[in-house]
């Protein structure tokens, strides 16, 4: 009998050769099958894709097709993975500082006005009266004419009223009107009339503000929401900052699950001058907490205040 060829398939072992020599062809075939399976396993480990691995990846893809498309912000909080924020990265403007006096954006002039005596208040009024008289002279008017003789005093008093928010204390306005009610559903006060002065031209902008929040068991007296809006409106403002300051103040004082504020207004600085567009309306919004995270909650608020129904 001829000796087996040594240059044949290298995967054939010595035992296979012995079995073939001894007349055991079945055992030789079994051994060659085992060795070919080992090869497939090694190829799979080395990065090759075998048929079983392909099936498992296909099943994974099929399972993913059964999941409905969903905004990740609408996922329940327990299932969301916590995202580690990079240091120094701010995703939203920080809340304005409400100091121990309850003021926001306090300046040197704010402090002086808040703490002034009656004599200092009279001196302030006289300085403003003199400044208005100068303005009348500069526009070509006669400040001693009967019709405008008392205009400087009237205007100075009116301007102090328009800006009385500078000397108001937000904590005194709230006056501990926060109550534990175990209520966790949306609360909205809409169509709050707002009057403020544009800080760029010192002319009014007027409109309506809608305030909503979802309590975290504590609720605030509903009259306090218009009062907070009034406090920040009675300052020199821009609408974007006014909207944000009201939302941040409610978030700071009440600590609810979320706050949403929307303001619609008409600006006389673009009605009486400039582009002179009398029908233009400016809408600004600020959403915090769950209103920012959850689209459904945000849309419910917008629908209830009537913004989603408009064409």
Automatic annotation (TrEMBL):
Look up the record and name the pathway of this protein: Cofactor biosynthesis; 7,8-dihydroneopterin triphosphate biosynthesis; 7,8-dihydroneopterin triphosphate from GTP: step 1/1
Locate the region Disordered.
1-120
Would you indicate the residue range of the signal peptide? none
- This protein's UniProt keywords: Allosteric enzyme, Folate biosynthesis, GTP-binding, Hydrolase, Nucleotide-binding
| Composition bias type Polar residues, residue spans | 1-14
Gene Ontology cellular-component annotations: cytoplasm
Name the Gene Ontology molecular function terms of this record: GTP binding; GTP cyclohydrolase I activity; zinc ion binding
Free-text function comment from the UniProt entry: GTP cyclohydrolase 1 is the first enzyme in the biosynthetic pathway leading to folic acid.
- Name the record gives this protein: GTP cyclohydrolase 1
Which species is this record about?
Neoarthrinium moseri
